[in-house]
């Protein structure tokens, strides 16, 4: 039985709209990330290699460092107003920032003002992408059931990978053919507007609507109660909300956080860490690196799609554990392999392997999401997602500059080993939660038929 045969027409339409929107959003987001080797030269002052590396890390991290604030803002909107509203707002924010960057004067024209404006635009893009991907994953999680739920949610990650491939393709085309780089951002702005319009057709998720309706009903019942008239409606609402909200285990929060920390490390190592090596040792230009990373993005896309499809047959947590074990093994030998590499193709092979066995939540995103209460789901998962990326990108990008300066390539162990250990611990915790959940469902399934036979009267026979 195929994945799509388990989905209704409305579910397929919603998933399609969300995937298209995610593709468009991540096209815009990744456009600057992958053109950074070129654009940093246009918007940042020229300095010595060490300072240039720090400025590059600053430009890269500016996209992610304010994401926790975006998580709180869009988490509140998503949990109180709705999932649909959030994904529409974030897409419009992305298109606005693209329009500004497409018209922004360079550092040579206006000086440090260009640096600050481009950094602010990157922050806005980071904030909007925060509500985007988590909002889509939560939306699909709430309208589907396993096993179709696993690949359906995972393909949001595939859509983001397609956006990255398209961004690198456009960036490569622009830089190799001599077209103005601004054209790429105009394309991105137009794409984001199309995504916003397409998402207007979405409906709010039934699970969220049902919970809101249940909450409103309890408020109205409390208002009619003679003994509750002395209380204000706002007070009753807080009491009902407090009753409905469940406590979240600190271990569950920590586990989810460590799992989310895996992808920032994998992405940075796969796409960013080797750029100085390619430039300084093999003489790659900015255009060469963009073209090189374009093929890497294709590897990432095929890898993401393969794991997503497999999640229909193999439980996603088993996939994550397998990848983490392979990543840990690669970690031990990676410094040696980098030092022995003597050709750009060997560097490309190392980057490809890093992306294939990368640490990351995909394809198990829905597993983590459903273990959080509905009215805390958006805020909690998006904040953990944002915080993990903000801290991990800062730790990875700046840390590797100093660790490798002091210890050579062996310095990457100080980043990779702790991340791998934390990731595996987090996966093991969610395996326990899944087992408890299945045991609970099994017991409930055994009791329900008994209860039904007791409570339901036998049908009356007529002669």
Describe, in plain words, how this protein is organized in 3D:
The structure is a single chain. The chain has helices spanning 9-43, 49-61, 67-80, 83-103, 107-110, 112-143, 149-177, 182-199, 206-224, 233-244, 250-260, 262-272, 275-280, 286-310, 316-340, 344-356, 365-369, 374-407, 413-455. With 463 residues, it is an all-alpha fold. It has a single domain (4-436), classed as MFS general substrate transporter like domains (Growth Hormone, Chain: A, Up-down Bundle), CATH 1.20.1250. α12 (262-272) crosses α18. It is globular and about 70 Å long. Residues 450-463 have low confidence and may be disordered.
Ordered list of secondary-structure elements with their pairings:
Layout: H1 9-43, H2 49-61, H3 67-80, H4 83-103, H5 107-110, H6 112-143, H7 149-177, H8 182-199, H9 206-224, H10 233-244, H11 250-260, H12 262-272, H13 275-280, H14 286-310, H15 316-340, H16 344-356, H17 365-369, H18 374-407, H19 413-455
Helix pairs in contact: 1-2, 1-4, 1-6, 1-7, 1-8, 1-14, 2-18, 3-4, 3-6, 3-18, 4-6, 4-8, 6-7, 6-18, 7-14, 9-10, 11-18, 11-19, 12-16, 12-18, 14-16, 15-16, 15-19
């Amino acid at each position: 039985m195929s994945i799509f045969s388990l989905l209704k027409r409305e579910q397929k339409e919603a998933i399609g709209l969300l995937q298209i929107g995610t593709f468009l959003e991540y096209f815009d987001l990744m456009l600057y990330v992958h053109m950074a080797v070129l654009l940093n030269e246009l918007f940042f002052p020229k300095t010595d290699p060490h300072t240039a590396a720090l400025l590059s890390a600053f430009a890269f991290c500016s996209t992610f460092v304010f994401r926790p604030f975006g998580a709180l803002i869009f988490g509140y909107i998503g949990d109180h107003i709705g999932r649909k509203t959030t994904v529409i707002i974030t897409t419009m924010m992305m298109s606005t920032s693209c329009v500004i960057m497409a018209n922004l004067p360079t550092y040579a024209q206006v000086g440090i003002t260009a640096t600050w404006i481009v950094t602010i635009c990157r922050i806005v893009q980071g904030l909007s992408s925060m509500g985007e991907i988590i909002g889509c994953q939560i939306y699909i999680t709430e309208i589907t059931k396993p096993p179709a739920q696993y690949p359906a949610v995972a393909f949001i990650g595939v859509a983001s990978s397609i956006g990255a491939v398209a961004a690198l393709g456009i960036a490569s085309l622009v830089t190799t053919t001599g077209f103005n780089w601004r054209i790429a951002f105009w394309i991105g702005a137009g794409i984001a507007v199309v995504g916003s319009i397409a998402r207007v057709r979405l409906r709010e998720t039934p699970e969220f609507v049902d919970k809101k309706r249940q909450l409103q009903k309890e408020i109205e019942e409390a208002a009619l109660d003679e003994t509750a008239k002395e209380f204000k409606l706002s007070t009753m609402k807080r009491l009902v909300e407090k009753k409905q909200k469940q406590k979240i285990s600190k271990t569950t929060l920590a586990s989810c956080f460590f799992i989310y920390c895996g992808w920032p490390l994998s992405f940075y190592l796969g796409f960013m860490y080797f750029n100085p090596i390619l430039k300084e040792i093999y003489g790659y230009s900015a255009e060469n690196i963009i073209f090189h990373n374009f093929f890497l993005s294709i590897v990432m896309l095929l890898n993401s799609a393969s794991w997503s499809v497999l999640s229909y047959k193999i439980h996603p947590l088993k996939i994550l554990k397998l990848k983490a074990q392979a990543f840990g093994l690669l970690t031990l030998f990676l410094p040696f392999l980098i030092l022995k590499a003597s050709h750009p193709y060997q560097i490309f092979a190392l980057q490809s392997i890093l992306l294939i066995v990368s640490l990351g939540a995909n394809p198990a995103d829905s597993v983590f999401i459903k273990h959080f209460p509905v009215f805390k789901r958006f805020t909690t998962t998006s904040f953990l997602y944002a915080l993990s990326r903000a801290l991990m990108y800062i730790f990875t990008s700046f840390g590797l500059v100093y660790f490798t300066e002091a210890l050579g390539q062996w310095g990457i162990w100080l980043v990779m080993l702790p991340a791998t250990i934390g990731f595996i611990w987090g996966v093991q915790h969610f395996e326990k939660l899944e087992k408890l959940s299945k045991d609970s469902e099994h017991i409930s399934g055994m009791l329900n038929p008994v209860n039904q036979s007791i409570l339901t009267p036998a049908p009356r026979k007529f002669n």
